[in-house]
Amino acid sequence: MIKIAFQGLIHSGDFKTVSNLMTEWVQAEKLKLKVKLSGDEIVYEDEHIYFYCHSAMAEPLFLLEGSLSGTLAQAKALLQRLLQLCNARKIASRFDYAQVNEDGDEISEQFHVQ
């Protein structure tokens, strides 16, 4: 199975807004949410996708990183859906993705969704 790594920025400092956004994106009933002194975290994992989204320390934004099993075209479609959800909420965002090997090293060019 092809593995795609992705990362991105979601320009919102509101934990509830971002957690609702991520829940709608993966169409999950429940995400693993953590509120800590060091920042808020959202984690999701199923048989096809894993992501970790956490608040940045210095700016009102969330950092997203994760991976999925599938093709580059599937990754693009999934991240475009997240971008559309952000745009509908007037939240600036940007996402990058690339195919990686088993060690996590990029083996394709990096693509951008913005």
Give a quick rundown of the structure:
This protein has helices at 15-26, 72-88, and strands at residues 3-10, 32-36, 39-45, 49-55, 62-69, 93-100, 111-113.
Which descriptors apply to this entry?
114 residues; alpha+beta; S-adenosylmethionine decarboxylase; seven-stranded antiparallel beta sheet; 7 strands; 40% strand
Give a structural overview.
Strand 3 and strand 4 (49-55) form a beta hairpin. This protein is an alpha+beta fold and 114 residues long. It is 25% helix and 40% strand. The chain has a single domain (3-113), classed as S-adenosylmethionine decarboxylase, CATH 3.60.90. It has helices spanning 15-26, 72-88, and strands spanning 3-10, 32-36, 39-45, 49-55, 62-69, 93-100, 111-113.
Instruction: Give the CATH architecture.
Output: 4-Layer Sandwich
The fold-level CATH name is S-adenosylmethionine decarboxylase
The run of helices and strands is EHEEEEHEE
| Main pleated-sheet profile | 7 strands, antiparallel
Fraction in helix: 25-40%
Query: What is the CATH C level class, in words?
Result: Alpha Beta
Please state how the strands of the largest beta sheet are arranged side by side.
2-3-4-5-1-6-7
* pLDDT < 50 stretches: none
| Rg of Cα set | 14 Å
> How many individual helices?
2
Topology at a glance:
Blueprint: E1 3-10, H1 15-26, E2 32-36, E3 39-45, E4 49-55, E5 62-69, H2 72-88, E6 93-100, E7 111-113
Antiparallel strand pairs: 1-5, 1-6, 2-3, 3-4, 4-5, 6-7
